[in-house]
Amino acid sequence: MQLTQQNPDIHAYLVSDEAIDHWHPLVQETADALWSTTGDAYSYAEAAFEFVRDTIPHSADSGDLRVAWRASDVLATRNGICHAKSHALIALLRAQGIPAALCYQRLTEDDGTVPLVHGLIALRLPGGARWSRLDPRGNKPGVDARFDLDRERLAFPVRPELGEIDYPELHAHPHPAVLKALRESADRPQLWQNLPTAL
């Protein structure tokens, strides 16, 4: 799939905003701690990915009912759904000067029902010629997402026969419909009702 930058300016994928608040002290501290154990962009990106994937449980897996959506809140509460974890990973990447974008998929149950928009990320290492998608959702039985910049190893490869979609756009900011759902949901059950079913 050909990924498409919504903004042609690569610097758009380094900025902070309300959700990707990489200026926040907790994001900065976490990024600095991870960088101190790596020392180069590739190793740092892998460490940041594994940190978010493995140390911040997906709230549907952990049973946590809270809805975190700002990167700093995700890191503080160690909680979030796919979209929130993507915000956290992008903030950590951007904090160290690595361009990162939000990506989306439309997924369904195994029978093609209950469509939902799933969030993941793409990054482009400094000097790199292309974007690579990664999914920090968190692994569980049947889900084995990995850090691989050459071959996608996502949590959920799409099944077009069920109406599932890989959206090719690279977003510099969270999609407005996703952000609205996250911000306006009092708890995770309400969030499931509010998340968009397509973009």
Automatic annotation (TrEMBL):
Pfam family, one: Transglut_core
Bilayer-spanning residue ranges: none
Record-annotated Transglutaminase-like domain positions: 30-136
Naturally occurring in which organism (per UniProt): Streptomyces avidinii
PANTHER family reported in the protein's UniProt record: BLR5614 PROTEIN-RELATED, CONSERVED INTEGRAL MEMBRANE PROTEIN
Protein name: Transglutaminase-like putative cysteine protease
InterPro entries tied to this protein: Papain-like_cys_pep_sf, Transglutaminase-like
Cleaved signal peptide residues: none
